[in-house]
Amino acid sequence: MKEITELLSALETHIDPEIAIPVAIAVVVLAAVYFLFRKKEVPTEPEAVSAEPQEVVPPPEPPAPEVAPVQVTEPAPEPQFAAPEPVAVEEKEVVTLPADSAPAAEPIEVAEKPVLPEETEVEPEELKAEKEPEEKKVAREPEEEIVAEEEEDTEADFFSRLSLGLSKTRSGILQNLEHVFSSGRIDDATWDEFEEILIMSDMGVATTAKLREKVSSSFGAGDSGDMERIKSLLEKEILDILKGVESPVSDISAKPTVFMVAGVNGVGKTTSIGKIANRFTREGKKVMVAAADTFRAAAVEQLGVWAERVGSDFLRGQTGADPSAVAYDAVKASVSRGIDLLVIDTAGRVHTKTGLMDELKKLRRVVARELEGSPHETLLVVDATTGQNAVEQARVFGEAIGVTGIVLTKLDGTAKGGIIVAIAEQLGLPVKYIGVGEGLGDLREFDAGQFTKALFTSDKEALH
């Protein structure tokens, strides 16, 4: 206090000591407080520097951007170190689990496990060895099945299938006729309905008109419409027409005998060739099938499958090659190999295309030139379900290549079985084969009596 008093006196101030002394004391207290806080701030700075991981202090400091990158860099590594740690723990746990369980009970199981794969490796080899003969058996099964079909397929069996196949055609004719003649009256209107029923079964207008004339001429004025009599008369007239086109297939006397098979696509030509080859193969003949349909690879492959199935030789040309060249090679090969029957599958032709029909004529000329008297049969395959279009096909092909016989397929399940009567009456072309199914034995030589009887025999009568 003395010092302050002296200081004030030295300054020669006129301040009242009573006022100056308290002020001085306050100043001293403030200074002391200031220095006290000053001392506390100085030690905190090194503590903040030493505790660098605890970077909570940097925010008050002015260099805020320097603290921000430090904070950004630190959280980035933390998750990286945090991620592998649980992985390491999980791996240790996974490793310890099998290690604990292995010595307890699994050493025996481990010893058994290697034995099992050795046994399983042996089993597939045994299975393969067992499967190989089974596959060979499968390849031979068709031949064995064919033998069974040929032996067990009697005429009665085929007649039953034929009758069932013609059931739609038969019902379309007979049931409708029964309805027409059920009244017992016979007049022009009745015969008009009679004619309409036959046309609906695809017997054709001209053929139907002739049948009406012959059947109606047997009835006089006032006669009743006896259905059994009408049925008998109609059956007789149809049989007479079909008898005129009944013709057996050429015998296999020439060596080789050549069958040339034609038809539009989709009529069953390839399948029919396979069945024909099967029939003669079963008779002990040596058969060759030639695929002159070089435009459709699928048709060639299918014919090759049929040839392998029935056990005949097979000859094919390059895709897109001239069909006449394939036919030429087939004739030469059949002569050199001593073939009994050569069946040439021609390319499917649309009968309305003149250029395609000209190629077919060329093929026939080449065959005839290379082997005298051939082709011995020129067969046209016709689909019965096409109706009156089949008549037009037969007419055009007949004029172009001289068709010697008709193969009528797909008679089973069609209501247009009367087309065979139209072909026979209008064109007079012989009917060589008829097909009533997909089996090898379902293609048979045409028998007019058998066909007519099946057409007028009910399903129950056919089964018995």
What is the number of strand segments? 8
Strand composition percent:
5-15%
Counted by DSSP, the helix tally is 19
In the sheet with the most strands, the strands line up as 3-2-4-1-5-6-7-8
> What low-confidence regions span 5 or more consecutive residues with pLDDT below 50?
42-60, 62-152
Q: From N to C, what is the helix and strand string?
A: HHHHHHHHHHHEHEHEHEHEHEHEEHH
Global outline: elongated
Can you give a write-up of this model?
- The protein is an alpha/beta fold and about 475 residues long.
- Helices cover about 60% and strands about 10% of the residues.
- The protein is built from 19 helices and eight strands.
- Helix 8 (about 165-180) packs antiparallel against helix 9 and helix 14 runs parallel beside helix 15 (about 355-370).
- The longest helix has about 45 residues, at about 105-150.
Provide a brief overview of the structure.
By secondary structure, the protein is of the alpha/beta class. It is built from 19 helices and 8 strands.
Quickly list its features.
19 helices; 464 residues; 62% helix; 8-stranded mixed sheet; alpha/beta; single chain
Task: Map the helices and strands.
Elements: H1 2-10, H2 17-50, H3 64-73, H4 77-82, H5 84-104, H6 106-152, H7 155-165, H8 167-181, H9 188-200, H10 205-216, H11 227-243, E1 257-262, H12 269-282, E2 287-291, H13 297-310, E3 313-316, H14 323-337, E4 341-345, H15 354-370, E5 377-383, H16 388-401, E6 405-409, H17 419-426, E7 431-435, E8 443-445, H18 448-455, H19 459-463
